[in-house]
Amino acid sequence: MTVSVLLVDDEELVRTGIRAILEAQPGIRVAGEAADGAAVVPLVRRLCPDVVAMDVRMPLMDGIEATRAVLASVPDPPKILVVTTFEQDEYVYRALRAGADGFLLKRARPAEIVHAVRLIAEGESLLFPAAVRELAAAHGNQEARAAMERARLTEREREVLLLITRGLANAEIARQLFLGTETVKSHVSSVLAKLGARDRVQAVITAYESGFVAPG
């Protein structure tokens, strides 16, 4: 299956570089480009990309508002990969909180960029570096704690959530817990449903904000 990508960044040089990296790979094509978040929704509707690789800081509409706009107005939204210069950035956290599926540093190696796009397209989450985990924990709030209490996760579901916060994919969780991959998928779906989380990233944020797990 070919993964189609929409590139959104106000720096043409960045878009050109990422396009060259992605289009050199089999099974990935760049469907289009935009220089600002304000153009994202119309392009997503027209091009139907699988992944939007989007800068978090742009002049007219930043990646946070563009993420919200896509999720609010597109029936079957693409995965959103936030691309940023600094990992310990309040903007990154806010974009993830708004519904982005992961983030990538602009200084990442070509292989890491390709891996991130493919992983996001498959519905997996990217490992949160320590800086972002600390940001999430610092934003602890009663809403997240209440969501965790309401969820009433089983012991197995709590184990699965803990491994999700460590960035493990379903197959890795299955090996860790000596379970079948389909069983793990079922547990992950149950955890997301109970937490009211759109995806794994939102579940991880809730886990840190609620104090269920602490950085480190």
TrEMBL record:
The keyword rRNA-binding belongs to this UniProt entry's keyword annotation: no
PTM sites of type 4-aspartylphosphate: D55
Domain Response regulatory: 4-121
Entry keyword set: DNA-binding, Phosphoprotein, Transcription, Transcription regulation
Residue intervals of the HTH luxR-type domain: 146-211
Keyword set includes Transcription: yes
InterPro entries documented for this protein: CheY-like_superfamily (IPR011006), NreC/VraR/RcsB-like_REC (IPR058245), Sig_transdc_resp-reg_C-effctor (IPR016032), Sig_transdc_resp-reg_receiver (IPR001789), Tscrpt_reg_LuxR_C (IPR000792), WalR-like (IPR039420)
Protein name per the record: Response regulator transcription factor
Organism: Streptomyces gossypii
